[in-house]
Fold this sequence. Notes:
The protein contains ten helices and 14 strands. It is an alpha/beta fold and 362 residues long. α4 (108-120) runs parallel beside α5 and α5 runs antiparallel to α10. It starts with 30 loop residues before the first strand and ends in a 10-residue tail after the last helix. Residues 1-5 have low confidence and may be disordered.
Amino acid sequence: MTSLHPVQQIPRPPCAAPGAADPFAATGDPLRWGVVATGRIAGNVTHDIAGLEDSVLQAVSSRTEASAQAFAEEFGFATNYHDADGVTGYQQLFNNPDVDVVYIATPHAQHYAVARAALESGKHVLCEKAFTVNAREAAELIDLARANNLFLMEALWSRFLPSVNRAWEIIHSGELGDIQWVQADLGFPSDHGRDHRLWDPAAGGGALLDLTVYPLTWALGALGFPSAVTATGVLNDDGIDTQNGLTLTYRSGAQAQLTSSLVASGPGQATVSGSAGWLRTGSVLHNPRELTIQPHQGEQRVETFEQAGRGYVYELRETTRCIQQGLTESPTMPWADTLNTMRLLDGVRDQLGLRYANDDGE
């Protein structure tokens, strides 16, 4: 069946292809990694970096000496850095000539400054989502990476998972017919205090920058970027969005409804519906272990998936492959998609009245 509004499928990374080698298996010369920040997500990703056959855990940085040392000892980094004598730990790490690529896991509001310093120091960069706070920051980082011939990628791990790529294969095969709508949600009642990054305006807190990228991934994967976005949401007394709802509309007539929340629990699923059937992820949508496919006329089937490591190895394998092959961006997570995503989120924030200190330079 030919779609009435064809959308190009996001390119599948080699590590997620059917029959692909173990993503931990080496694809070239070893890369020496630096990790900036020592929080929970940094630990999970570092677990998978350590498992790569062609990785070296070279250096880690944190604001405090205790955190940097503890993290280095836990994972076996060759050296560690912390803020001292007026120099940040991350800048000391970037000054280390033995570091090839850095993974940045700081709060959102710090991504721009840290990634900029890394690129200016000649390091390849893998930076957590949301890539930056706004599109201006994203564009500047992309320009800097391009000018210095350095690899730069947003660490949106879902795009690299075999399960997600299989879903996109089904969606774009025509099996579901003409895709008409997408529904996706992600939410949990956060019980963290107001000083936690999720609730801290100075850290870029809120549901939009932390959660919405995951429901949005399913809309973009199925339908591409929309022609218009309508947003509603609730801001707390600190000006942080506690919950938001987005409606994406397309010139074809297709729609996507996306919900993100820090105050309510949700099923954490994505449904993609077409004229010939629908597909639904298992929970959670950003790392589904199963897909349910229901033809409009036919028997339902469920496809299940195994996960290597903690799931981050796929984006790490793609990062490693691209750098080994001299690429500056990944076809699966190209700079244009990151920039257009930040522009979309900027438009949502304008509708919600959501601003951060990072916007003051605009």
